[in-house]
Amino acid sequence: MNSREIEEFLSELKAYWISNDIPNVTEKGAQFLKDMIKIKKPKNILEIWTANWYSTIQMWIVAQKIWTKITTIEFSPLSRKQALNNFKTVWFDNFINSLEWNALDIIPTLEEKYDFIFIDWMKKRYLDFLNLIWDKTESWWVIILDDVIKFKHKMENFYEFLKEKNIKYNLLPIDEDDGVILLVR
To answer: Is the pLDDT of residue 86 over 80?
Structure first.
């Protein structure tokens, strides 16, 4: 598929998830991810929660140009099946490591180190994800957590942890009603 065909497919995919009320990263969120990948040039990306791979495809558009690996985790067998089909459609299926299960159980078993991590699942468990991925990171890394403004009430322990540990973060309102937390080391 050429880039125009991929963009058309992504438009169809977006229309599908909007009409079926499937939560996904917004276009502005996807652009932010792509921009961060262009800037940081990571070698190994971990995505926690895939849905139908809209965000993964968006990241891969940039990541493939710098020979980046992507590992993505999806809890729902149905969503993962849709995601795998979507990736086959755009011919990216051989380049992504797709894992199906609860990320809280899978992350401790991962043997690789990651320098770019995108988390967009179970806001109330963001602190658990963060604690699990600390030892899975390279010496420098980027961690992006999505939907941190409108779901702040689900993340009180996460914000308390950042404050207690004096962890510097950037809260970026990238959408009209929401934003991301950016952690960089």
So the answer is: no
